[in-house]
Amino acid sequence: MADRSPRFLLLYSATGGGHLGAARAVAEALEERSSRVELVDVLAEYAPWPLSHAPEWYGAALRDGGCLYGVGFRLLDGRRRAYVLSALFRPWALPAACRLLAEHPADVVVAFHPVPIHTLAHALSHLRSAVPLVAVGTDLVVMHAFWADPGVSRYLVATEAARRQLLRHRIDPRRVQVVGLPVSRRFHEVRSQRPEVFRRRLGLDPEVPVVLAMAGGVGFAPLERVARALVNARLSAQIVVIAGRNRWLYERLRHLAAGGGVRVEGFVENVHEWMRAADLLVTKAGPATLAEALAVGVPPVIWGAISVQEMPNVRLVVEAKAGVWAPGPRQTVEAVRRLLNDPDARRQMRRQARRLIHPDAAAQVAEALWEAAGERVDRRRGRPTALLAKVRSSPN
Prior knowledge:
- The chain is an alpha/beta fold.
- The protein has helices at residues 18-31, 42-46, 54-61, 67-75, 79-103, 117-126, 160-168, 185-189, 195-201, 223-232, 247-258, 271-277, 287-296, 311-319, 329-340, 343-353, 361-372; strands at 7-12, 36-41, 108-111, 133-136, 154-157, 176-178, 210-214, 238-242, 263-265, 280-284, 300-304, 324-325, 375-378, 383-387.
- The protein has two domains: 7-181 and 358-387, 3-Layer(aba) Sandwich (Rossmann fold), CATH 3.40.50; 185-353, Rossmann fold.
- The chain has a six-stranded parallel beta sheet, sandwiched between helices. It has a six-stranded parallel beta sheet with strand order 9-8-7-10-11-12, sandwiched between helices. It has a two-stranded antiparallel ribbon with strand order 13-14.
- Strand 11 (300-304), helix 14 (311-319) and strand 12 (324-325) form a beta-alpha-beta unit.
- The two termini are 27 Å apart.
């Protein structure tokens, strides 16, 4: 008997860790429903040059603190500008998009990155395909104009503020649903366990407070100055710095670790354990990192943000009193020192974080995707009862 479980194609880009993290969280939730799921790095594997190099160029674009990146982000944030730029690339991008859809047939195509959305929508229309295109927003607040396309059947976004951004781009409000930012269930699960358990597991002193410093998956270079300030402050805490995939940053910080007083890690797969082991998270305002921190229950001290794109995240967290904004090394050290000596303030921040987290965000996205696939789930029996939509075969 043929496998009648629905097929989902989840498209992300390794331009930062948030797109892949959200896609993996949704894949977990879909696989619990006996779905067939494929994850594809759409830019690296299918986009024409120069977009195919976007993942490796993204890290380089942030080495100056993201100022130029922020300028470009703002300049392109207009519906007409985004459409015109996508149209210019269409002669090269459209054949690649059609090949992607032919090589990865699916009942639903899900985009976790804005750049390919216009091309995907055009490709599905060009192929006269009935396959729906769903967009899952991976920012907490900002939804760039590249997300907006009438060919997207449904938008699943993190916050009401993100929903308003899409309405500004003239997206039909009936197609936008606020579900929260999907994070892996492991970030929610570790919250119930004591930090000392993870400190022992990670080779840390279980009795000494831990300050964890991060800068996202690509390793935002200004983290080096923040890490040096934390070490020089001689805080009554263990300092751990995670450099991500930035080898240059890792080597610079490794020399700092040689003098003692700090532990340096590169990219880690168990960041949820490091967060749960920590009393404070010193981080830039990346949406995925903030959502994960709020889920775990570690108060964030935000030391920096990518211009334009991430500053609204700072306002969201600070206004909820779930974290503090301490730009630059000096203010970061002052905030960390104050909060280490004020456990009541940390507890209050953890309580306030509950206002922002959506523990079932990934499950809600999975539910919406099943609906998009035309499925009706027999909750009593726990398996699909009917497949109401079929994928049309894509031409080669």
